[in-house]
């Protein structure tokens, strides 16, 4: 199976085009006001049109209510809903039924105890995304540029697809994949020149590095 590469937190036509041209499999759009990558519904609609089926559109929300999710669905028409908050297993089930979209649940990781939630989420979610657990005083749950201990996933037994994120960049993603054996990588701050400001050249370099890692793994 080919490695999935997701560029998250895109917010301009130029950087979205860079990700699409470079061959990103997924492009992520953030709908969470505390984030420097937050999009208005109007801009989300505009960028969503630009994708034109060239990649999967992922809508990132954090503990969003049905009204918020409905607005995001209307604006972006995402292919996947990425739930980055403290959503319960029951909430995941409700969202899948109501909005009829695949769900990617983010699991924040700091210690092995954080993996105890996996069986419940795995029964409902279509994909798991492992991210570094944010500090207690953080204003947002992700996109903070910090990695977690990838060795916590070294002997992971998980039946559904999973990705890793948190502090990834072009120079360390090969090691992250070697340790975790993840089927995909997700980057946001690792392709930015400043918080919320994506760099087209860094996006291209990350995707090149991901593809080079994939080529080495099949030799």
From TrEMBL:
Domain of life according to the entry: Bacteria
Gene Ontology molecular-function annotations: phosphoribosylanthranilate isomerase activity
Gene3D superfamilies: Aldolase class I (3.20.20.70)
GO BP annotations listed: L-tryptophan biosynthetic process
The protein's Enzyme Commission number: 5.3.1.24
N-(5'phosphoribosyl) anthranilate isomerase (PRAI) domain boundaries: 5-208
Pathway in which the depicted protein is active: Amino-acid biosynthesis; L-tryptophan biosynthesis; L-tryptophan from chorismate: step 3/5
Pfam family, one: PRAI
Keyword terms of this UniProt record: Amino-acid biosynthesis, Aromatic amino acid biosynthesis, Isomerase, Tryptophan biosynthesis
Catalytic reaction(s) noted: N-(5-phospho-beta-D-ribosyl)anthranilate = 1-(2-carboxyphenylamino)-1-deoxy-D-ribulose 5-phosphate
Family statement: Belongs to the TrpF family.
UniProt name for this protein: N-(5'-phosphoribosyl)anthranilate isomerase
Taxonomic source organism: Bradyrhizobium hipponense
